Amino acid sequence: MKTPSVRVAGLGLACALGLGLENCVRSLRAGERPARPLSLEGWGDPIRLPFYSFPDDGRGPFDPERLERMLPQIAEEALSAAGLSPKQRRRTALFVGSTAYGIARAEGEYLSLLERAPGSSFALSRIGFQEIRELMRETCGIEGPDFAFNTACTASANALLAAQRSLSVGRFDHALILGVELANRTTLTGFSGLQLLADELRPFDARRSGIVLGEGIGAAVLERGSGRLNFPGGSSNSDTYSVTSANPDGSSIARLEAEVLARASLKPDAIRGIKAHGTASPLNDAGEAAGLRKTFGLLPPLTALKPYLGHTLGACGIVEFALLGGALAEGFLPAVPGFSQEDPLLGVRPLTAAAPAPDGTYLLNYFGFGGNNTALLLEKSA
């Protein structure tokens, strides 16, 4: 028996490209790369690094009220696009993926208490999933079951996958999926200490040297049925090769891609384009390129979105899903800025100019710390 279809009923997005999906897609088409310098104080020497932050609202990237101010706006964008009634919203299930949730607010509370009463301060007393749950209940009327995902950089991709599977078996009628990653000192100093950060993000380029972080909030409403943008599902697996990367020989990634295609009864040549994970770190790009070469005889058009967004970590699943969905609806696949020098060891050449996006199925890759690999399919229909 054929699995019921699941369609994308609404999308919402905030990222460095702008606030609102339409604004973000417009900036993407224009080729904007809005990384901005960020300074972390309170250390022996200030830590300065590039960062893809939201457009400046005058309150700064560490404003502890940003989650409450911005998340309802982006969730509402997706819910309004889906046209859900108050009754439907009350029954909608919530799936949230993040690595840090509301940790920025906890940092702000800690710093304020540390200044007022150092002896009674307690670092990071909460991380914020329950705050997100209550915020969606109070502002958007979402009262269905809720689920949290924290699988590093695949967190919201796995939230999307779980929601799609739940809908396809009839467990829910609608699902709201959120990916949330806001600027916070804990994440930024941690990645700086790991020496994984670069000055510029160049996926698959021979000069690639690491990632540039970013923040983002993405939202999607899924429902059963077919439409202009459908979500056939995907798959995930685990790779124990390393704490921080998939096997660079591409074996686990190739197995993942093969399983995704088999689940959808697709041959590799049915894929019209690929959204690479494309972190621009040497090992991750090597593993992804090797996995794609093992899967595809001739690679379809390949794009990567992190040069426009930064790496939004646990939010990148839904943030990049939403941005690619918006681009597909507008009929284009974006170029990959920063790529100019091909790496002969990778054998992968991403788009250097925007390309048409015909109807058909697209593959989206996501890989995370801890060896979790996830790939999704997105189908554009006439």
How far from one another are the termini? 25 Å
Number of DSSP strand runs: 15
In the predicted model, the low-confidence regions spanning at least 5 consecutive residues are none
CATH homologous superfamily heading: Thiolase/Chalcone synthase
Which range does the strand content fall in?
15-25%
Q: What class do helices, strands and sheet pairing give? A: alpha/beta
Shape: globular
| Number of H- or I-type helical stretches | 11
Order of helices and strands: EEHEEHHEHHEHEHEEHEHEHHEEEE
Can you walk me through this structure?
With 382 residues, this protein is of the alpha/beta class. The chain has a single domain, classed as 3-Layer(aba) Sandwich (Peroxisomal Thiolase, Chain A, domain 1). 34% of the residues lie in helices and 23% in strands. The chain contains eleven helices and 15 strands. A six-stranded mixed sheet has the order 2-1-8-7-5-6, with helices on both faces. A hairpin with a 6-residue loop joins strand 3 and strand 4. Helix 2 packs across helix 5, helix 6 crosses helix 11 and helix 8 crosses helix 9.
What's this, in brief?
The chain is α/β, with parallel strands linked by helices. The protein has 11 helices and 15 strands. Strand 1 and strand 2 form a beta hairpin.
Topology:
Layout: E1 6-15, E2 18-19, H1 21-30, E3 36-40, E4 47-51, H2 66-82, H3 86-91, E5 93-97, H4 103-116, H5 129-140, E6 146-149, H6 155-168, E7 174-181, H7 185-193, E8 216-224, E9 229-238, H8 251-263, E10 271-276, H9 282-295, E11 302-304, H10 306-309, H11 316-330, E12 332-333, E13 355-356, E14 360-368, E15 372-380
Parallel strand pairs: 5-6, 5-7, 10-11, 10-14
Antiparallel strand pairs: 1-2, 1-8, 3-4, 7-8, 9-15, 12-13, 14-15
Helix pairs in contact: 1-11, 2-5, 6-11, 8-9
